[in-house]
């Protein structure tokens, strides 16, 4: 089929979008295309997710029951774990994890396995787009090679390939998937035109770049920028603390400058699927070109050290109350990696829980968004642990309370009245009165 006919199918909304991976990236993308009346077919190996979509049951907080019910009742939306249905879709968007392995190097098995499956079902005229964050060159060097080798088809002639990085920010009410501009790089001009046309049906703006490698570099640059600047304010936090200066007061005052300053906020470490992981994809790839990424690696060292800094501050705080960590009961407030979401991927709270446990403390947590810890590869030993109830009797029983995530619907004034010792890693207690000297910043 000619490119013109494919573009007309997109324009007429007769072009079916297949989304592989229905997690924090894939599910919002499914909703966004569906909302714009594009037919969507979702794929996932997790049958529970597939069933939730088809039955209208929410499993990601910011896509609540109303939206899930609309997906379930739609005649242009379906979800399946049957990958034999891949040929039904005109475009296949890969939204699968790209974690790090045990040596902090890219773990591409999910991308590779998904591409292998696609290659066995690939048909002419399909568009394959990778959305997962990865090292520059992945699409050209890995994805296309697998697709061509196993299908016998030729990219750019028989099928189209593009890269468009996800830019999800779970819980951000101002910027959902539809409102965030989409960077797109294609394997050739035709692939770029087709991919941009597809995203133009659902996204506020597409930003075409010269090739897939550039688009891959854009995503890494965005997250490296955040990682480096967060590392900077984390380092300032430690230095200013020794000087008796409140880093949050400094940053609030600096933010009043109308130019030349962008505020970043320190914390107990990095969380989420992007910022703690993505910079190391470039670090790994740079070695192939005999290049060093000193800023990136230094930022990683600073941010990785933050949980241990919080632990050290906890030790000092407990010592001031003539207590040791060993044998103390410690409550972590917030398991999600950021406020007001249920996403606990790479949350620094898990590292804090592990460190406190290694020192002999008894650990619990409270998080209204994460009532129970789910099974995961990284934190299997915590699976099944439940959030405590929010009550004075419960919280008074702890020797220390550590605020790791500052959810906005937690009553911090109440916490101050109930807890005898608080270690605040997020400046959550700044507006609380009558602290009685029992709040420590970390």
Molecular structure report:
There is one protein chain. With 442 residues, the chain is α/β, with parallel strands linked by helices. It has 2 domains: 208 residues, NAD(P)-binding Rossmann-like Domain (Rossmann fold, 3-Layer(aba) Sandwich), CATH 3.40.50; 212 residues, Rossmann fold (3-Layer(aba) Sandwich), CATH 3.40.50.720. It contains 14 helices and 13 strands. An 8-stranded mixed β-sheet has the order 3-2-1-4-5-6-7-8, with helices on both faces. It has a 5-stranded parallel β-sheet with strand order 10-9-11-12-13, with helices on one face. Strand 7, helix 7 and strand 8 form a beta-alpha-beta unit. Helix 5 runs parallel beside helix 6, helix 8 packs across helix 10 and helix 11 packs across helix 12. It is globular. The model has no long low-confidence stretch (mean pLDDT 94).
Q: What is the string of SSEs from the N terminus onward?
A: HEHEHHEEHEHEEHEHHHHEHEHEHEE
Number of strands: 13
Class inferred from helices and paired strands? alpha/beta
Mean pLDDT: 94
Distance between the termini: 61 Å
Question: Topology of this structure?
Answer:
Elements: H1 3-11, E1 17-20, H2 26-35, E2 40-43, H3 47-55, H4 65-73, E3 77-80, E4 91-94, H5 109-121, E5 127-130, H6 138-151, E6 160-163, E7 182-186, H7 189-200, E8 206-209, H8 212-242, H9 247-254, H10 278-288, H11 294-320, E9 329-333, H12 348-358, E10 362-366, H13 392-395, E11 400-403, H14 412-418, E12 422-424, E13 439-441
Parallel strand pairs: 1-2, 1-4, 2-3, 4-5, 5-6, 7-8, 9-10, 9-11, 11-12, 12-13
Antiparallel strand pairs: 6-7
Helix pairs in contact: 1-7, 3-4, 5-6, 8-10, 8-11, 11-12
């Amino acid at each position: 089929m000619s490119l013109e006919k494919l573009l007309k199918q997109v324009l007429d909304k007769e072009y079916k979008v297949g989304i592989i991976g229905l997690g924090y990236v894939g599910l919002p993308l499914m909703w966004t295309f569906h909302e714009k009346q594009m037919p969507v077919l979702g794929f996932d190996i997790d049958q529970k997710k597939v069933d939730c979509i088809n039955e209208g049951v929410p499993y990601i907080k910011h896509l609540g029951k109303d939206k899930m019910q609309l997906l379930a009742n739609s005649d242009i939306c379906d979800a399946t774990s049957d990958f034999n249905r891949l040929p039904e879709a005109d475009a296949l968007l890969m939204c699968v994890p790209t974690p790090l392995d045990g040596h902090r190097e890219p773990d591409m098995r999910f991308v590779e396995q998904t591409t292998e499956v696609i290659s066995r079902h690939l048909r002419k005229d399909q568009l394959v787009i990778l959305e997962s964050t990865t090292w520059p060159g992945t699409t050209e060097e890995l994805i296309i090679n697998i697709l061509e080798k196993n299908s016998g088809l030729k990219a750019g002639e028989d099928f189209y390939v593009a890269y468009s990085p996800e830019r999800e920010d779970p819980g951000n009410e101002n910027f959902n998937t539809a409102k965030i501009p989409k960077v797109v790089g294609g394997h050739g001009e035709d692939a770029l035109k087709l991919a941009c046309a597809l995203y133009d049906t659902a996204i506020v703006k597409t930003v075409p770049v010269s090739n897939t490698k550039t688009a891959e570099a854009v995503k890494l640059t965005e997250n490296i920028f955040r990682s480096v600047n967060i590392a900077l304010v984390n380092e300032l936090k430690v230095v200013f603390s020794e000087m008796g200066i409140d880093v949050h007061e400094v940053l609030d005052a600096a933010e009043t400058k109308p130019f030349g300053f962008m505020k970043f906020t320190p914390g107990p470490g990095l969380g989420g699927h992007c910022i703690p992981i993505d910079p190391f994809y470039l670090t790994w790839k740079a070695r192939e070109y005999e290049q060093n990424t000193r800023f990136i690696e230094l930022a990683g060292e600073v941010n990785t050290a933050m949980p241990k800094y919080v632990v050290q501050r906890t030790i000092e705080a407990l010592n001031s109350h003539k207590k040791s960590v060993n044998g103390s009961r410690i409550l972590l407030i917030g398991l999600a990696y950021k406020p007001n979401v249920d996403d606990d991927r790479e949350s620094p709270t898990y590292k804090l829980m592990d460190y406190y446990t290694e020192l002999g403390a008894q650990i619990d947590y409270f998080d209204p968004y994460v009532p129970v810890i789910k099974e995961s590869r990284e934190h299997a030993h915590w699976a099944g642990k439940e959030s405590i109830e929010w009550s004075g009797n419960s919280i008074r029983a702890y020797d220390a309370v550590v605020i790791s995530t500052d959810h906005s619907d937690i009553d911090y004034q109440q916490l101050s009245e109930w807890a005898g010792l608080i270690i605040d890693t997020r400046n959550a207690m700044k507006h609380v009165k009558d602290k009685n000297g029992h709040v420590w910043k970390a």
